[in-house]
User: Which sequence fits this backbone?
């Protein structure tokens, strides 16, 4: 089992949690981005830089992941592809995407896109809080404990 990270938009504090977890559990951690990403020297952590472009990093993750892998992403369409491939998806705020909730998340995303396209200001995601970081760390630990 490997952990894949959609690293272009992943908050630094979440990456730090992932670096520590990879070392502690000896789990391969791969950060995929279309720009350089700083990673610690570790036998368990590596980075993959892909060409610039829309969804290039997402496509690389989907191409390379194996069933049972974990993908860290806030990108709901990517999470849907990951789940369809038999892998797991977790967002940086600690929410697991599953076969039972991904369709509702996609529908809400599409609805919000429609509102924004019509000119409505829907606001953005709130800033990452300490509670979000803790929720992510707890869910990551639960996943790693159950899947090792």
Assistant:
């Amino acid at each position: 089992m490997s952990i894949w990270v959609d690293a272009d938009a992943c908050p630094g504090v979440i990456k730090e949690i992932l670096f520590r977890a990879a070392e502690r559990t000896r789990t391969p951690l791969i950060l995929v981005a279309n720009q350089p990403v700083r990673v610690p020297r570790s036998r368990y952590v590596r980075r993959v830089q892909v060409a610039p472009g829309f969804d290039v990093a997402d496509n690389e993750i989907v191409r390379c992941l194996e069933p049972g892998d974990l993908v860290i992403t806030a990108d709901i369409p990517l999470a849907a592809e990951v789940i369809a491939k038999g892998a797991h998806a977790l967002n940086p705020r600690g929410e697991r995407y599953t076969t039972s909730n991904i369709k509702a998340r996609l529908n809400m995303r599409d609805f919000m896109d429609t509102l924004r396209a019509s000119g409505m200001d829907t606001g953005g995601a709130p800033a990452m809080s300490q509670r979000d970081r803790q929720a992510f760390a707890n869910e990551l630990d639960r996943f790693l404990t159950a899947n090792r």
Q: What stands out?
A: The chain has a mean pLDDT of 92. The helical segments are 12-25, 56-64, 76-84, 102-117, 130-146.
